[in-house]
Amino acid sequence: MTETKHYLDALAHLGLPGDWAITVDRRPRRRSIGIEIGPAGTVTVLVPPDVPVDRVAHFVAAERAWIARNRERAQQLAPDFAMKTLVDGETFDLLGKRYHLRLTADGQPAQVDAGTDGLLSVRRADPEVMREAIIALYCTHGLDWAREHGAKYRHLTGLRGLRYAVRDLGSRHWGIYQKAPHLVTLHWPLFGLSEQVTEYVLVHELAHATNPPGTPHGPAWRQRMHHLMPDWQHRKHLLYDLGRHTWMGACQPR
Ligand SMILES: [Zn+2]
Fold first, then answer.
1. What's residue 33's pLDDT?
2. Which of 103, 141, 145, 202 has its CA 20 to 30 A from that of 190?
3. Are the beta carbons of 107 and 121 closer than 8 angstroms?
4. In this predicted model, what pLDDT tens digit does every residue of 161-210 receive, in sequence order?
5. Do 152 and 164 contact (CB within 8 A), yes or no?
6. CA of 218 to the centre of ligand 1 (A)
7. pLDDT computed for residue 116 by the predictor
8. Are 167 and 64 in the same domain?
């Protein structure tokens, strides 16, 4: 029997809810017992060396209410990103407009019709090729949008020579500003959100680009945000809400 199993057996006697999926992780460098709540509400008990089984059980029992509270919070905040199936009729949101996918035998790898019919035409290919074509479409349309809307703020920001890029920024950033190339980069899934939210991220980075004194999101930066976009805090909360459910590029087999 492994040592971890001893702990788990002791925890099993506490009668904790089954869906907590509690696990024990031995941490040789820790000095005190800890509890980690994962993004989906998983519970991991962190156990330093040489801690008696009953002490771990007591600790977890005493923290029961805290665990329940924090699991609930973690689950509310957990991302639940949209999944797409690459078949006719699947919907895609791009710059405030909804499109329906239509797979075609030829034509562009991916294109949206300029008319009002809301069709996203994608040339039939391997799913990965089609997925990449759609993401590339988000990037090009997003880049046009960013340039156009960035220019709208020029008189307020006084920014000159600012450059823009749209690409995949992973899961931690919606946008970044880099001083040396004077470049604002936006995360492509941003363009699947409402324009109100997309514009918040753009303006957030523009405010960084104006180079306010102090810390990155400090008083001077906030003051610029208030000046550029009076309701920025509201939009920021919208981003938290909507951003967790948007399409980040995941596709499932048909
Ligand atoms: Zn920032």
1. 94
2. 103
3. yes
4. 999 999 999 888 999 999 999 999 999 999 999 999 999 999 999 999 99
5. no
6. 10
7. 66
8. no
What letters, b where the CB count within 10 A reaches 16 and e where it falls short, cover 111-138? bbeeeeeeebbbbeeeeeebbebbbebb
* Domain-ending residue, one of 41, 59, 77: 77
Interval between CA 42 and ligand 1 midpoint (Å): 30
User: From the CA of 192, how far away is ligand 1's center (Å)?
Assistant: 20
CA angle 115, 168, 151 (to 5 degrees): 60
Measure 205 CA to ligand 1 centroid, in angstroms.
6
C-alpha 128 to ligand 1 mean position (Å): 32
Q: What is the pLDDT of residue 224?
A: 97
Could you report the average pLDDT of every consecutive run of 10 residues in the chain (254 residues)? 82 87 90 87 91 94 93 78 92 94 94 83 95 98 97 94 96 92 97 96 98 95 97 95 91 81
How far, in Å, is the centroid of ligand 1 from the Cα of 225? Answer: 11
Which ranges of the chain would DSSP assign to H, the alpha helix? 3-12, 53-62, 64-77, 127-152, 154-157, 195-209, 219-228, 232-243
Distance between Cα 217 and ligand 1 center (Å): 6
* CATH code of the domain containing 234: 3.30.2010.10
From the CA of 187, how far away is ligand 1's center (Å)? 13
